[in-house]
Amino acid sequence: MKSDIATFLNGLAMGAANVIPGVSGGTIALITGIYERLINGIKRCDPKAMKMVLKGQIKEAWDYVDGRFLFALMTGVAISIVSLARLFEYLLEHHERLTMAFFFGLILLSIVYVAKRISAWTPTVWLALLIGSAVAIGIAFLAPANENNSFFYVFLCGVAAISSMILPGLSGSFVLIIMGNYALVLGAINSFDLGVIIPLMLGCGFGLIAFSHILSWVFKHYADHTLAVMTGFVIGSLVVIWPWKDTLTEQVLREGKPPKDVVTGYAWQMPSVANAETWIAIGLMVLGAASIVLMERVAGNSNQSKAR
Prior knowledge:
By secondary structure, the chain is mainly alpha-helical.
């Protein structure tokens, strides 16, 4: 039961994290040590599980996909999206710098905990860390592409968006902005344009299943290198989460909806020590770091109770 509560709380954190630019639910899953279990559970939502269901072997299928874990986690994610996430959306709109400061501290200290899971720091593991950091930082500096509504490109957008959502340090919405189709997808959802929604959903479904298989395989055969790349992604995400920056936006017109500002880039700054808000932000960074220590202790206690 304690394990289910801890998993549910992880889901709450994952759902809330998805509304923060540069933070993904995958980051929270990696920090709390459930990432590989999540990937393996998604991977097992396959034809074998479907055959069990069709044969009436519901309990066997539930156990096969680690249903109890996935249910507790996804329940937390869903509740967070309709509750906690709205709180963070309000905070981002009215107190963006302070909100980002909290998450900057959280992500900064999480790097230490994730890196501790690497058993041997060989030269190739260090190289994997550098590659992951370079990729995440490079994405932050990319100029958005032009909008493209072709079936295949929208399908690729779905694959890329869902893959980045389960990768630590990469934001699915930010990837859609870089690929130029954020406004297209937003408008299609609001107007229920099946010409865009269908290829997008097909891409998301294909990407989720295929990418979970790839991640499961590389975790099994190259655990240290995979963790190093993901640690690099998290390090690179700090560029986007840095609190002292001006967000560059452009206004997107939506049919039947008010215009929406879409992030197209950032202009970074250094904080002013003479500003009282700077010290409040630093205090929130410390609070964010402390929340990671708490998450780790809850996850550790959950794992110990499960081992008993």
